[in-house]
Specification:
With 412 residues, the chain is an alpha/beta fold. The chain has 13 helices and nine strands.
């Protein structure tokens, strides 16, 4: 039996109502076509080195003996990434098996459709693979890179104006596969580490939620800025309720619930508690969202504290500024805007439009919820980018011998 160079793992689309399914689902047509395209590119880039059995598509024999053997022996694991991928038990077992093999393999993820950071139970780099030096990367158009990140291979396949974008990205993935194969050791004859995927844990089910810090900088009833009415405040900063939308729950608590719905494990903190992390006095262990009441900036001390925060380069902290819906706040709109611009000059000058808009004011709870979902995910991605990515399923005692989703040498 020939050892496959690469193993394509994917989560098949569930059968529609009325369709029969005998437990051996056929590959989705579009994924099958991608597999054939990748197969052709790998064969072309490798020239005469390509064996007859270059790849294996996990399809009809899903979980069967042939598929398990291919997973056991392959050099490269190519997961076709979608939201469904991280909820599929067989995909989770395949991921665990590959990352726990004694013989090193390489993960080369292929982004099929976009997946928010919070929907990824293991850290994984979803940018288009780049070959390790000294290899020269296969040329890919700049717009193709943007479209790949935005819509994945599935989106590129639907682009009839630029079909070459899809071809370029598939060829780049194939280049990374061929490079990894040429560096990989051959499996030992008759070596067997696992024979049944049903006995292997689901890597995704065992993973913990992403932590998220939620810091609140707002007055309380006993420490209000001069002239500010107390109708929006409570006993502490966490009791602040800027919106009169009938919920009767502090914004911080509602934000934490929203975070849990997104797959985060939130922890609410006051700004005083979070400030040592924001100023670099203590290492962060999570991304953060800072919820800021602009009224507090009328206190010169608070204004200077926020300016000190702004001077630090903290891409893993997103700032949202709810604008209360009471008449006094509406009357003070210009002054509050001036204070916000004075407190956050660096961020306002260097951020994306959606980030600037969130910092300069969100005037209703519906918009706040939408902005929080986008910016919490952005903070999480920035946090993951600042530390070495690794599969959380890897056994610590042998981490140097296991494939990591973000290895420097084998970075996808």
């Amino acid at each position: 039996m020939h050892t496959p160079w690469f193993f394509v793992s994917y989560a098949p689309t569930p059968p529609s109502a009325g369709e029969t399914d005998d437990g051996r689902p056929e590959a989705d047509k579009s994924v099958r076509e991608f597999y054939e395209d990748l197969l052709g590119e790998v064969r072309e880039l490798s020239g005469t080195l390509a064996p007859r059995s270059v790849g294996h598509l996990d399809a009809a024999d899903r979980g069967g003996a042939r598929s398990v053997r291919a997973l056991h022996d392959c050099h490269v694991f190519v997961p076709v990434i979608t939201r469904r991928y991280f909820t599929d038990v067989y995909c989770g077992r395949q991921w665990h098996a590959l990352t726990h093999r004694a013989r090193r393999g390489t993960l080369v993820p292929a982004l099929w459709t976009p997946v928010p950071t919070t929907a990824r139970p293991v850290p994984v780099d979803l940018t288009l693979p780049v070959p390790a030096p000294p290899a020269e990367p296969v040329p890919v158009d700049g717009e193709a890179l943007k479209d790949y990140a935005k819509g994945g291979l599935y989106g590129l396949r639907a682009d009839t104006e630029h079909p070459e974008y899809y071809d370029q990205c598939v060829r780049r993935i194939a280049q990374r596969v061929v490079q990894a194969v040429r560096r990989a050791p051959e499996p030992r004859p008759n070596s067997v580490e696992f024979t049944d995927l049903d006995d292997i844990p689901d890597a995704f089910a065992a993973s913990s939620w992403h932590p998220l810090g939620i810091a609140v900088l707002a007055p309380d009833m006993n420490h209000l800025p001069p002239g500010r009415r107390d109708t929006k405040y409570g006993r502490g900063p966490r009791d602040w309720q800027p919106y009169s939308d009938g919920y009767g729950t502090p914004l911080a608590e509602r934000t934490a619930e929203l975070a849990r719905n997104l797959g985060f494990a939130p922890e609410i903190r006051t700004y005083d508690q979070a400030e040592p992390v924001f100023l670099g006095h203590r290492e962060t262990r999570s991304p953060w969202v800072l919820i800021l009441d602009p009224w507090i900036l009328r206190d010169p001390t608070a204004l200077e504290r926020v300016r000190a925060f702004d001077s630090c380069d903290l891409p893993w902290v997103s700032v949202l500024t709810p604008i209360a819906d009471d008449p006094q706040t509406r009357q003070a709109a210009d002054d509050l805007d001036r204070l916000l611009r004075a407190a956050l000059p660096r961020r306002l000058s260097s951020s994306r439009p959606i980030q600037r808009g969130a910092m300069l004011g969100i005037d209703n709870s519906e918009t706040f919820n939408a902005r929080f979902m986008e910016l919490a995910d952005s903070a999480a991605q920035q946090y993951l980018n600042r530390v070495p990515l690794r599969s959380t399923t890897t056994r610590p005692s042998a981490s140097a011998e296991r494939p990591h989703a973000g290895d420097q040498e084998d970075r996808p």
